Amino acid sequence: MSGVTTLDRLRLRDTGRIVSLDGREDLLQRLMALGFLPGARLEVVQVAPFGDPITIALDGWRISLRLGDAASIAVEPANGRTSSRTEVP
Q: Nearest 5°: CA angle at 9, between 45 and 70?
């Protein structure tokens, strides 16, 4: 699983595939109910002005997540990029 990072570290327009979820049981249940399942493909489509929350395109839906919740989702970036979101202007 080389190149795996967490969703909160992806930048605007980055795409990837969900590898796993980790965190509190209630959060995991909510994320899975929204479609955040291993193998699902996603894209970061919007970032709030101060960087939190981010909006994710997933299975035809747009879902906004706090960065703290997005950190619970391990993803393999489609472009192999694993750099920090702090680079987003």
A: 75
